[in-house]
Amino acid sequence: MAQTAQAVPENAGVEASNGAAEPEMISGGHLVAKALKAEGIDVIFTLCGGHIIDIYDGCVDEGIEVVDVRHEQVAAHAADGYARITGKPGCAVVTAGPGTTDAVTGVANALRAESPMLLIGGQGALSQHKMGSLQDLPHVDMMTPITKFAAGVPHTERIADLVSMAFREALAGAPGPSFLEIPRDILDAKVPLAKARIPEAGRYRASTRSIGDPADIERLADLIVHSEKPCVLLGSQVWTTRGSDDAIDFVRTLNIPAFMNGSGRGTLPPGDPHHLQLARRYAFQNSDLIIIVGTPFDFRMGYGKRLSPSATVVQIDLDYRTVGKNRDIDLGIVGDAGAVLAAVTQAASGRTSTGAANRKAWLEELRGVEDAAYQKRLPRQHSDASPIDPYRLVHEINEFLTEDSIYIGDGGDIVTFSGQVVQPKSPGHWMDPGPLGTLGVGVPFVLAAKYARPDKEVVALFGDGAFSLTGWDFETLVRYNLPFVGIVGNNSSMNQIRYGQIAKYGADRGRVGNTLGDVRYDEFAKMLGGYGEEVRDPKDIGPALRRARESGLPSLINVWVDPEVYAPGTMNQTMYK
């Protein structure tokens, strides 16, 4: 491992007047930038502050873009979103005190979503430690519970070394966020470049594509070969590990019906004979083999209680702590989702029979359940009711999406509707906050997705409450010329909470603390230089979406939806069960 920058000898520098060589000096901020560059970081998301400006100066020299936003929560969410889109870690840089505390929500969301990012926070000068310097707070103590790694930098020479350490932790096992606090005098100081440890790109981290125990791979292959009614749930880690192609090959080669959740949505395209969505509960109750890949037994899975007690259950995950948590399993494999599935496919394909031919009747059985559920809901999706049925809105959005559309959901009840209907057409084209359920990720995810992939169309559905949290950074999208198609499902309420209050306390107390104003978000978009339209008639949704696309601007289509209609998940209060 390189101990110093390889191109810099010990006596590097300029010649002094007495003929002796003066060492080449480098500041802490420039060391940060060099370390980020070594990791492949090409953009930081930030809100400026006096504690961190030397990092900006270093980024300019290293060719790293500095994207400035209006709120530190947006910067952190954007770093999370950038990691999801690119497969590289994201980076946000914020100032000390309230700058760092504003970013806490974004970091916590990345932790639960297993998204690799580095947050760098400023701090008062180390020479003023415990003296009450401007914006001094115990940032490391606050960040430790919500990161995989949190540390302060004690000396300028150690800056790049600790940046590489933070990335190593962020990307080990199930990925997540890291935090570094850098005091201002440490950041601004200059040290001889030859003395600073700058780890060399690609040489300070191990491979993470583990397949676990080979004996377990063979055992899982054997279980599949002898299964008549298997199913697989492809979770977010399938996309995190960029294992989509391996998952597709696994499903098709072994003829296994597949369900998808989180970032795993889109692994199989709509219409694929192995792609199922609405028959999941039936499959979980009637399968003889259930394979859970890269998703925990958390509230979204009913803590594992929705799986048939007689089924053989296999769990594959990057994190050993997730395997077997909340529910006993028959086989657990800790490893990379794509690598494990590829290995199992190969192992099963080497058998005399893979059992694939015996599963035709099972697939037809599930397809019948799927089609019946779809037909039952279809009238709602075509409803001409006014106010607009949310099912009609999400149906129109699904019809609007193309192969290149990245879909982002940011909201409560309205996004619950979309989860049943909207189907991304390619891997990595679905983004939602993840299991923390954070509202306000939409605009920063749009920023990250469109910045990272300008060739892609970005379509975002917001609840009106969710958009309100980070909506001012719509101006950032205008400023950076990042067009997208935004839709606000507007019912002037935090409707997911409103339903629960009505159910628990009665209709006369159903409007306590959850009612919003009738805001014209289309006019808000226009005010900030974007495109806006208001929609009250369901037949106008599709044309409005197409006009937004053609505008070439950041857009908001304000769609008034029926506040008295709730998603089934909301009515079942499944998020609390």
Automatic annotation (TrEMBL):
* Keyword Metal-binding belongs to the record: yes
The answer to whether UniProt assigns keyword Metal-binding to this entry is yes
Cofactor requirement: thiamine diphosphate; Mg(2+)
Question: What range(s) does the Thiamine pyrophosphate enzyme central domain occupy?
Answer: 217-343
Annotated region described as Disordered, given as residue ranges: 1-20
What CDD domains does this protein's entry cite?
TPP_BZL_OCoD_HPCL, TPP_PYR_POX_like
Q: Name one Pfam family in it.
A: TPP_enzyme_M
- Record Gene3D superfamilies: 3.40.50.970, TPP-binding domain
Signal peptide range equals: none
Q: Which UniProt keywords apply?
A: Metal-binding, Thiamine pyrophosphate
In terms of SUPFAM superfamilies, this protein maps to: DHS-like NAD/FAD-binding domain, Thiamin diphosphate-binding fold (THDP-binding)
Q: Which PROSITE patterns match?
A: TPP_ENZYMES
Domain (Thiamine pyrophosphate enzyme TPP-binding) ranges = 410-559
Domain of life of the source: Bacteria
Q: Which InterPro entries match?
A: DHS-like_NAD/FAD-binding_dom, THDP-binding, Thiamin_PyroP_enz_cen_dom, Thiamin_PyroP_enz_TPP-bd_dom, TPP-bd_CS, TPP_enz, TPP_enzyme_TPP-bd
Thiamine pyrophosphate enzyme N-terminal TPP-binding domain residues: 27-136
Give the family, as the similarity comment puts it: Belongs to the TPP enzyme family.
What name goes with this protein?
A: Acetolactate synthase large subunit IlvG
Q: Which organism is it from?
A: Kibdelosporangium persicum
